[in-house]
């Protein structure tokens, strides 16, 4: 088998215009139609051959068999489309786009990127589909038992959108998720400008019921507290000569029941959302002093939740709450004053003397902002052995505001489940970086919803409202009289406060992130290379010409390769930055700070403190890679690094132990949620040796995981209880999403691969907080990678 021909169309679902205009990779002179296009038995045989090669999943073939049994008269072309649609789900696409598949058929299956040397290869999709036209395929997609064009009971749904050339085939479940998402978002956006009387009635409900308390009318049409919104925004944001996108984001997200705040690393998403919550709570208390909003914060993984937890706690403590409470008190006093004089003039009856009570409630009510962040699975109440959650439309969550961080990692199934479980009037705010890799599961919801975020598309009405709320006029380039309702609910933060123009990490992220339509591939490569050559203090570009360079990096961190050996830098808050390290650092801490002469049971605090130090030291460095298998993948690198650390006498164990067993210092990544052990997918633990209480002088291994519980900072787990973990000296970029490391080393393999795209490189480098080492196993791979884009197929956005 040969390598797919056009490497520039590696991204099957790349830019639609380009793929349509591009030369199709269909063979120019087909001889005759492949029998699998018209004969179900031939098709099943073909699927079997594809499954044997790993090009198609067994699951996909099983679906075809099932459909063929259910409807023996179904056209083979329909069954083939079903197999490919099912296969796309495993590759992150929600559906099969027929036209894109005909334009680049070989990307519809999981072909090995470097070709397949085995003899007697099965026909490639490009061979099979060579004679097929779009209209023939479209015509074959209609079958009363198997397909429909919308609601119904058929297992498949056909959607023809915009123009007849855009036909998508869905498995019904995924079509339904898309519909749910669409309906939930539209219904939350549609009445943002109208007072919501039902919500006011809901105010009378008790704290334990799950109807929403939030009266959404206050932000727009609230007559009782004129000016409270702009006043509160002015308390929360300092005056600025430039357009403050954070203030804009806060106002827009407060205005509607669905909002998105997107932005790159350090653009202030967390800072903004904390202020948004303070704003919402202030507005709510002005109306219902004794009924603060019930706010919940969630993230898709335990790691992302822990990170938000950490940063949000710091942000809440710096909020100007006293000023907001003063504003609130003045507001309630003036309201009651007005009411009092109105009552006096209307009648001689005594004034309604609830004033004192209301005043006291406000002045004693701290504007409560939660700092605890949970995972989405926990929030919804995941149950073992079922994909259904405890909370759903039938049993909604008891909350008024939900903030979801790292929303780019949330797949379509989870997003539909969350939105369905929200009470009708609850407010949902998504935070995330639209340019990051999407979830590994099907769907790239945040990226799809934010397709128009760059240019904003605010209507003149929105701009006018924003100006009255924030005091800031919007530049005309962000206005669009044709702006969609969704555009009005999205703000993109555009200024990084963590990476300024002197930061190589920030500059590289920016150069890589330029969308394809904004510049040619060559211009992008030149921009990226200019950043690499510039000599920024936080960035080192390493091409592996000698074997030991990678070893030096992972052991020592290669501080000597950075300007001044990494000494003397400060961060954006003027705090000193420690020089970059490698894995030696945490292993040194492990040995140097080990509690001596005390048993684990007698002094758990000492062991917890030790474990916390080791875990913190581990987070100073992480090697990221692209692949799982092979010498440049997680598996090969993990073993290589463990052996290298052993040769430095930093780790101990036989080859077998290092490859398959447990040893002190082994860092592990949890790969599946384990509710029994309270461990979440993405958690990192370190294996430590603690004294064995049963055998004096001996030790036993336990794995230490950090917790967010201040009472019990470390969770100790016996290795035998951990089933879904892997060594994490090397971590894939996909798994690193939602995490951040002081020194991140991103290793690109020597050959290009379909998953090596701009989004992946961007996601990898933005995991670095202070130092980035970009490693190319062979020069040139980065240049190729940054010109490839992933575009997921879906009907959202
Ligand atoms: N307007 C601002 N002025 C000055 N510093 C700011 C401002 N906004 C945020 N920061 C600081 O910038 C840093 C990054 O902010 P924040 O954590 O809110 O960004 P983020 O977008 O959530 O980052 P990430 O998701 O990449 O971790 C923080 O130290 C924060 O205090």
From TrEMBL:
It is an enzyme of class 5 (isomerase). Residues 728-775 form the UvrD-like helicase C-terminal domain. One of its GO terms (cellular component) is exodeoxyribonuclease V complex. Keywords: ATP-binding, DNA damage, DNA repair, DNA-binding, Exonuclease, Helicase, Hydrolase, Isomerase, Nuclease, Nucleotide-binding. It catalyses: ATP + H2O = ADP + phosphate + H(+). ATP binds at residues 263-270. GO terms for molecular function: 5'-3' DNA helicase activity; ATP binding; DNA binding; exodeoxyribonuclease V activity; single-stranded DNA helicase activity. GO terms for biological process: double-strand break repair via homologous recombination. The keyword RNA-binding does not apply. PANTHER family: DNA HELICASE B, DNA2/NAM7 HELICASE FAMILY MEMBER. Heterotrimer of RecB, RecC and RecD. All subunits contribute to DNA-binding. In the RecBCD complex, RecB has a slow 3'-5' helicase, an exonuclease activity and loads RecA onto ssDNA, RecD has a fast 5'-3' helicase activity, while RecC stimulates the ATPase and processivity of the RecB helicase and contributes to recognition of the Chi site. This is RecBCD enzyme subunit RecD. The gene is recD.
């Amino acid at each position: 088998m040969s390598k797919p021909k056009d490497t520039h169309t590696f991204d099957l679902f790349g830019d639609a215009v380009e793929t349509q205009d591009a030369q199709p990779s269909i063979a120019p002179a087909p001889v005759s139609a492949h029998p699998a296009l018209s004969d179900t038995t031939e098709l099943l045989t073909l699927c079997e051959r594809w499954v044997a090669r790993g090009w198609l999943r067994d699951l996909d073939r099983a679906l075809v068999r099932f459909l063929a049994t259910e409807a023996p008269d179904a056209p083979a072309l329909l069954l083939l489309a079903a197999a490919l649609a099912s296969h796309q789900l495993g590759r992150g696409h929600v559906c099969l786009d027929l036209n894109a598949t005909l334009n680049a058929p070989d990307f519809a299956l999981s072909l090995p990127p470097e070709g397949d040397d085995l003899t007697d290869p099965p026909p490639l999709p490009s061979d099979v589909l060579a004679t097929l036209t779009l209209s023939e395929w479209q015509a074959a997609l209609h079958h009363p038992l198997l397909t429909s064009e919308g609601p119904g009971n058929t297992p498949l749904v056909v959607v023809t959108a915009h123009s007849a050339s855009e036909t998508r085939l869905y498995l019904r479940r995924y079509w339904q998720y898309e519909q749910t998402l669409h309906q939930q978002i539209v219904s939350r956006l549609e009445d943002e400008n109208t007072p919501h009387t039902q919500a006011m009635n809901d105010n009378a409900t008790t704290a334990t019921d799950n109807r929403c308390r939030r009266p959404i009318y206050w932000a727009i049409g609230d007559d009782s507290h004129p000016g409270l919104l702009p006043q509160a925004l002015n308390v929360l944001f300092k005056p600025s000569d430039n357009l403050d996108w954070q203030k804009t984001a806060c106002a827009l997200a407060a205005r509607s029941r669905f909002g998105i705040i997107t932005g790159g690393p350090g653009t202030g998403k967390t800072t903004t959302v904390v202020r948004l919550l303070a704003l919402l709570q202030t507005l709510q208390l002005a109306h219902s002093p004794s009924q603060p909003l019930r706010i919940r914060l969630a993230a898709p993984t335990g790691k992302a939740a822990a990170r938000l937890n950490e940063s949000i706690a710091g942000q809440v403590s710096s909020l100007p709450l006293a000023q907001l409470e003063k504003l609130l008190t003045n507001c309630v006093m003036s309201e009651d004053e007005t009411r009092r004089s109105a009552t006096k003039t209307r009648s001689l009856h005594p004034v309604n003397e609830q004033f004192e009570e209301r005043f006291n409630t406000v002045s004693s009510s701290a504007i409560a902002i939660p700092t605890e962040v949970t995972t989405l699975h926990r929030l919804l109440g995941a149950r073992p052995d079922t994909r259904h959650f405890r909370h759903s439309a039938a049993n909604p969550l008891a909350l008024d505001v939900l903030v979801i961080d790292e929303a780019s990692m949330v797949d379509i199934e989870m997003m539909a489940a969350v939105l369905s479980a929200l009470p009708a009037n609850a407010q949902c705010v998504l935070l995330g970086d639209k340019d990051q890799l999407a979830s590994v599961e099907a769907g790239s919801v945040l990226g799809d919803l934010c397709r128009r975020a760059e240019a904003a598309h605010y209507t003149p009405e929105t701009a006018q409202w924003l100006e009255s709320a924030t005091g800031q006029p919007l530049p005309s380039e962000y206005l669009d009289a044709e702006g969609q309702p969704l555009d009005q609910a999205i703000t993109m933060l555009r200024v990084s406060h963590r990476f300024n123009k002197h930061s190589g990490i920030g500059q590289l992220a920016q150069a890589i992130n330029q969308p394809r339509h904004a510049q040619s591939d060559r211009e992008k490569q030149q921009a990226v290379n200019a950043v690499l050559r510039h000599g920024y203090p936080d960035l080192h570009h390493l091409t592996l010409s000698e074997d030991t360079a990678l070893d030096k990096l992972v052991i020592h961190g290669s501080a000597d390769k950075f300007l001044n050996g990494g000494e003397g830098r400060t961060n954006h808050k003027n705090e000193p930055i420690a020089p970059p390290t490698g894995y030696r650092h945490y292993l040194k801490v492990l040995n140097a700070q080990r509690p001596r002469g005390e048993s684990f049971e007698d002094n758990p605090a000492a062991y917890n403190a030790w474990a916390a130090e080791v875990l913190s030291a581990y987070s100073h460095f992480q090697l990221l890679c692209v692949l799982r298998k092979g010498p440049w993948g997680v598996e090969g690198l993990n073993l290589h690094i463990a052996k290298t650390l052993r040769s430095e006498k930093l780790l101990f164990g036989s080859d077998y132990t290092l490859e398959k067993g447990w040893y002190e210092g082994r860092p592990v990544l949890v790969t599946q949620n384990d509710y029994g052990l309270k461990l979440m997918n993405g958690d990192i633990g370190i294996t430590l040796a603690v004294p064995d209480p049963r055998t004096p002088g001996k030790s036993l291994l336990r794995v230490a995981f950090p917790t967010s519980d201040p009472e019990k900072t470390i969770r100790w787990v016996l290795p035998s209880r951990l089933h879904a973990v892997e060594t994490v000296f090397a971590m894939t970029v996909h798994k690193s999403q939602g995490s951040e490391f002081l020194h991140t080393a991103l290793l690109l393999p020597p050959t290009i691969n379909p998953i090596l795209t701009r989004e992946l490189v961007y996601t990898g480098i933005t995991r670095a907080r202070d130092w980035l080492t970009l490693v190319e196993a062979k020069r040139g791979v980065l240049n190729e990678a940054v010109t490839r884009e992933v575009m997921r197929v879906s009907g959202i956005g």
